[in-house]
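Standup notes, protein team

Yesterday: finished cleaning the Flagellimonas olearia set.
Today: Ig-like domain-containing protein structure.
Blockers: none.

Input for Ig-like domain-containing protein:
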Amino acid sequence: MKTSSKLIALLFVMSLVTYVSAQNLDNSSSSVTKEASLKSDTVEAVEATGISLSWCGTGPYGQVDGSVYGGTAPYRWYQGGTLLMTTYSSSVTLNFGCNGGVLTVKDANNNEDADIVPQGCVDHGCN
């Protein structure tokens, strides 16, 4: 009788340990799933964020005032494929020249926007 009572008690303890372990595993899995879901939402939010370029000019010496909205600094400013400047400021004055061309800005996440600056050192207004 004593042996059977000890065996039943041992089986009960083992069942209890198994149950508690399974609960902890389930809770751990649930928190990992929630964390993965939050990271996924963050990545989607970053991907959905873009940048918007605006510019004014061209000044009498070929300068262009550029502004970028959104994105993450640093910003890289290009004329065609040539890097003109890297800044942490969202507003810059660039030595663009009077020949015109494509003005492109890229942020730290490689989001980009581009626009064509017309040829000529005359005031083209703001775009």
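Follow-up from PR in the comments: The chain has two domains: 1-48, 51-117.
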